[in-house]
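Give me the fold.
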Amino acid sequence: MRMRRHTEPAFGALNSAPWGRFARDLGLVALTFVVGYAISVYWITPGSITGGDEHAVPRVLGRPIDEARAAITRAGFRPRLETERPSAAVPLGGVVWQDPPPGTAVAPNAVVLLAPSSGPAPATVPDVIGLALPTAEKVVEAAGIRVGEVDTVRGSGPESGVVIATRPAPGNGRPRGSAVDLVVSGAPAGGS
């Protein structure tokens, strides 16, 4: 008859008691959590574990485009220009938008998008044809345009002082503050 030799498991008596198995399992759960956390942190923000070379993107909003490009380059990033965007607050040629936003930490040599301002958006010439001159003047000024010359044309209609045309025509864009000329009907021809 053969005799079997009984050997202890690798962890010895620790695995045989219920509390020992619980402690071992708890240790494995903790180890799994720590390893998973480290991997996820490295994946989401790789520089946080390695010390990282990331640094913040400087704020260049409102600065002239040449000055902004130089500041982005000095900070170790590559500036790239986007299409112009209208802005009432930022003068023509200033930076109106940047991506990534100021203060965002990114890797060196990353691209920073800059959009220069095209100045304020043009005002649209309102349709004031058929309105009395005082009302038409208020509407034109409310649109951000001023009234230029007012020409009176004798007409055959019974009404005078009514706008019959604008120069330029309604719907055209004009720089804010520029003038729009109005053509107004005068007294009927042959009238007294």
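The CA atoms of residues 97 and 115 lie 5 Å apart.
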